[in-house]
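During the reporting period the student researcher (J.K.) took over the structure-prediction task from the postdoctoral fellow and processed the backlog of single-chain submissions. One of the processed entries is reproduced below for the supervisory committee.
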Amino acid sequence: MTEQATGAPHPQARARSGGQQPTTPERMTGAQSLIRSLEAVGADTVFGIPGGAILPAYDPLMDSVKVRHILVRHEQGAGHAATGYAQATGRVGVCMATSGPGATNLVTPIADAHMDSVPLVAITGQVASKAIGTDAFQEADICGITMPITKHNFLVTRAEDIPRTIAEAFHIAATGRPGPVLVDIAKDALQNQTTFSWPPQTDLPGYRPVTKPHAKQIREAARLINEAKRPVLYVGGGVMKARATAELRILAELTGAPVVTTLMALGSFPDSHPQHVGMPGMHGDVTAVTALQKSDLLIALGARFDDRVTGRLDTFAPGAKIVHADIDPAEIGKNRAADVPIVGDAREVLADLIVAVQADHEAGHKGDYADWWKDLNRWRETYPLGYDTPDDGSLSPQQVIERIGQLAPEGTLFAAGVGQHQMWAAQFIKYEKPNTWFNSGGAGTMGYAVPAAMGAKAGVPGATVWAVDGDGCFQMTNQELVTCALNNIPIKVAIINNGALGMVRQWQNLFYGERFSNTVLHAGETNSNSGSTVGVGSTVNRGTRVPDFVKLSEAMGCVGLRCESPDELDAVIAKANSINDRPVVVDFIVHEDAMVWPMVAAGTSNDEILAARDVRPDFSDGQED
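J.K. obtained the following structure tokens:
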């Protein structure tokens, strides 16, 4: 799916669009003004669950012809669905919940959106203003709880403040570095009468995101790019958020430098492009990880030097100068000092860099990276991504995910849970276009995939949407398949079922002497060193898989399929792709001992990357390691 296909404008432009034409003042309740405000800012989908404190808002919501409400089965599902909607469309995702436990169930998806810079507005009901602070029934200080994990939050106690607050919330969520904003509204503010008019007068005196980069810094960055011998364009999710992928490609091809795209940036630069050397990180491509380590210049664009990319920070890219461009000044220098710090929107930074680099080229200053590419190409040929098929003829999880990607219709969107299947989906599905890959990168939230896929499909109904999930992740939020079935949201779910918490099991295998404590999910296997066995002495027989995902899926109104053999693989995937009138769940029974490689063990240097178990790459290239 291209940027043009989504029809989504740049977030900054959407926030400045001004909404509807000015309206005539009308008397109505605060709840009615809330719905009118959502309509005015362009919200067309809200994921939520009603409850006592937010109930006044649900009455006028029933009359709205512009805002579709999707009744989820759990508030966590509402939050992740709003995130998937935002990631697929580029618009602000909206979720709604009541006070107390309804609001606190949103904490995980809010934290998830905060870590991954997703524009989200979470609207929660609160007890009546006079009852706040009295430990009233279903009261929770959700503003205090979420203060560290929101870009901003509001407590609204007056009906007349609702339109202004909604306008400000959407503006804050979408501009600058995107992120979640919470709007907590007291019940009496929803019930009381007010005068509604649009647009409201907003008041955000301290909020002035810098979007235009400083010209001097741009010129210095261009000079370093053209002087470098081993540069790398280190591309993070901020490039995707800024809708700057076209500019990224122009700069990359203009310079001829290699490009690495982080887990959050997959698709921002085509996987098939000859300058793309892969994904860096703990389970990144050997070439991408090594390119960063041996570079003499990193041009970090919308990336934050997180620990999964850097490994042990004091050993990361020891010989590299750093150009760090980010919309959030707090990120620059936070983990790695920048030689050239650039604060600005990624699209504007890239556009200005293109002009500056081109000017240097015209003046006779152009980088020569021929020797660098000889090294990079040698590493790519020597250490490509790959996997072994099981000797017993069972399904390889990598093969399953690879074939799902190869057989998917054009423009398919992919959402992944967290764990081994997430890494395999990042490695073995090829992402050629932006906004086609969604996952929980920063928080690593199990249970993300199914509701995020639901939100993406609701936002882009014409696209095929696959959720690649693990059997552990799936059991956390699979109830949202009921939501999908009842709301005509026909997503497809691939359960990579190895009967275990796969990534935790991998770590137990590698670092805990193969003591698989409490990582087995199906019946009939030992779950601890005590020797106790799940299923013995109960009504569940040894070896029985619980639950039966096919029966569970059918009970939730979905088509349930199972695949246990490589011979069935293509036919089952084709059948899943052919069903578009209801959700489809495929239970892929895969080998339990598959591991994710390459790997940089947590807390170690990227120099210690393993291409496979006990296989450490040899970079005898004359450079210092």
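The committee noted the following: The chain has 25 helices and 20 strands.
J.K. will present the remaining backlog at the next meeting.
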